[in-house]
Specification:
The chain is mainly β and about 60 residues long. It has a domain at about 10-50. The chain has strands at about 10, 15-20, 20-30, 30-40, 40-50.
Length: about 60
């Protein structure tokens, strides 16, 4: 998992494709969850549970 540990264990049901690129929601061990993107075969994290909320936005529950 990019910027995480181990491998993906579950995937969301609606990946988005654009030619050879894909964005998807996935989970891993130890409560890892996030949105990931593969562009031209290079996999990276878009956001995950450890991503800071930008200043000016507050988290609502």
């Amino acid at each position: 998992m990019p910027e995480g540990t181990g491998k993906f264990t579950q995937f969301g049901i609606c990946p988005a494709f654009d030619q050879d690129n894909v964005v998807f929601i996935a989970e891993g061990s130890e409560d890892q969850q996030g949105i990931y993107i593969s562009i031209d075969g290079f996999l990276s994290k878009v956001t995950n549970r450890k991503t800071s909320i930008p200043k000016g936005f507050e988290q609502r529950r």
